[in-house]
Amino acid sequence: MKSFTYQRAKSPAEAAAAVAGQRGAKFIAGGTNLLDLMKLEIETPTHLVDVQDLKLDRIEPTSDGGLRIGALVTNTKLASDERVRRDYGVLTKAIVAGASGQLRNKASTAGNLLQRTRCPYFYDTNQPCNKRKPGSGCAALGGYSRQLGVIGTSDACIATHPGDMAQAMRVLDATVETVNPQGEARAIPIADFHRLWGDTPHIETNLQPGELITAVTLPKPLGGRHFYQKVRDRASYAFALVSVAAVIQPDGTGRASFGGVAPKPWRVEAAEAMMPQGAAAVSRAAFAGARPTEDNRFKLALAERTLALVLAQAKEG
Amino acid sequence: MKENDRLELTRRGVLVAGAVTAASTAVPFSADAQTASAPAASPTAKVAMKVNGKRQELTLDTRTTLLDTLRERLQLTGTKKGCDHGQCGACTVIVNGERINSCLSLAVMHQGDEVTTIEGLGTPEKLHPMQAAFIKHDGYQCGYCTPGQICSAVAVLDEIKRGVPSHVQADVTGKPALTNAEMRERMSGNICRCGAYSNILDAMEDVAGVRA
Asked: ipTM of the assembly?
């Protein structure tokens, strides 16, 4: 691990200014992803700004009947919250489908959204990777790509956003609240938070340098039945091959986001409109223009079948 | 003779070069606090925490993980380093009542925290009930993952008691039950290469009082 200096910020604006003011500075919250990558020297920050004292660890009701989740609320605390379990079940289900108990006790809400891909070629510093080293190429193209993306990818990168929580946040139309180094607040719809890779796969979100996530807000509850169906190579503690976060209403309409397939939670509103017609219609529309590799073409069929399972469960009542 | 000498030198040279290559390829995977402590200019920071009830005041290279602090500074070598990347759970300790991977946490971030390691749960003279149950049910073979398994197991029973939801719960609005399936799911962050899983679950069920 490269050496770094360390400070504990006292306010969100101070933290943002500290990161913006020093080249190579980064925020650290739970650290479960950042430290992993620092040990491999994939991340090499020269200065860490610890945000644990910023009092961003509360879940509070909003004036319009939703919930405001502080950026530092741990995955365990968020999944355990009575209001989340009752009104936003898809979020609790998505969180407990991810990582391990130990990691969920440390991982934060904001950090979870910012987690980096688990593409093996991003992790292997002996391989070219446009995300790790811009312009070096992509070893995943033509490499072992069973786990990787099938849609929204580019010729520069076929990695996925690996997370479960973000799928639920996308289905719930969450908003990411931030503060910039000047102390100005901004609200980013979750749909616009993660970027498609294009020619710049090293830029993964639309956050500006030094911009700090302070909270994620949820609009008022959607009702309906909540599902998070995850398909993976082992029953627990593995990243998704395909996952479906869904909220299905009694009349058969609903929302669905597909995980494990794209650089961001893959929710296509036009495809969702076909929910009453069944999983085949929805997934055909959601995955129009998909560019799978020979290794991961199975994800297209698997996504449709996973959604079919969710819709069958919804019908059972 | 001369020919032989040269051959010997050459062979030694090759061996030395080989060792250097091996060392340098190993660097990215072991560049943690232990190997990186040599440069004098590395930034340090002070931290005070309570470990197994005893206050510790330390000045550490900022890179030092909680795991390396426990093992290398405090000589609490019960906590084990397995993968050092949060994948195996051998380093599991309990911080402020919750289990975490100590390998994925910087020690300097634990100001004021209360850390409990396997040494703090019980002693050979006065075992924690979970330690006694692991012995009774043969919940290990080589023993390397065991301290992490026991810390995790103790925290898991507490999590179920506190109602923390899990992936195998049919209805997440309700309280989780003390079942084999619940414990199995919640222990998935602790890997045992010897495969003592079923005996570990027997030990947990014994402590939880769900089986005679």
From this structure: 0.97
